[in-house]
Model the fold of this input.
Amino acid sequence: MSDGSETEVATGVGPGARATPPAYPKSAERDARIRNGEVVHVRPIRPDDGAMLVAFHALLSPQSIYLRFFNFHPVLSAREVERFTNVDYVDRLALVVLAAGRLVAVGRYDRLAGTDDAEVAFLVEDDYQHQGIGTLLADELARAARARGVRGFVADTLAENVGMLEMFRATGFPVRSGFEEGVVKVRFAIDPVPAYLDALRRREADRRIVSGPAGGAAC
Done:
């Protein structure tokens, strides 16, 4: 969220941004089919994604922005774009979902200092909500986080954000939650327990891209 110190609209990142930083985890890239049959591309965010992130934010409904930032936040500041697009890919990781080359969702984790827990957040463009993108990002973030020593996810979610709360429960992870001043505090270990693995297998079957006779994707 903005700290209120800036009001300028960001359009990108500063000079010297690299399209593929040295630590960029290429292994975290993948394609997947979503519920509407479209094939999307998931990859780690890069410093040169600033303009796409700003364009994505501009298409969000006020309700989606409110549920993510807990306030009215119509534009991202330059400082926010800099922070959101520059991650170390270990303690801070963000994944974006691209549809036809356009950013339509982002999920991220930030490790809590001195712990093996990380705070997670997700945001999906309104037209792409309820297509399984939230759980796709949750699965990929959990996979990457476990490889980097993170053992649990935490999140603060507004009580009215029913879709996000249902997404957390649908993962198959053992979700615990508490309620405080209108905010649901969610916590769950991301170890691959049987319930999660069973749910993941079903999701991956739906995400599978089938090659058609001409070598394309038959969705």
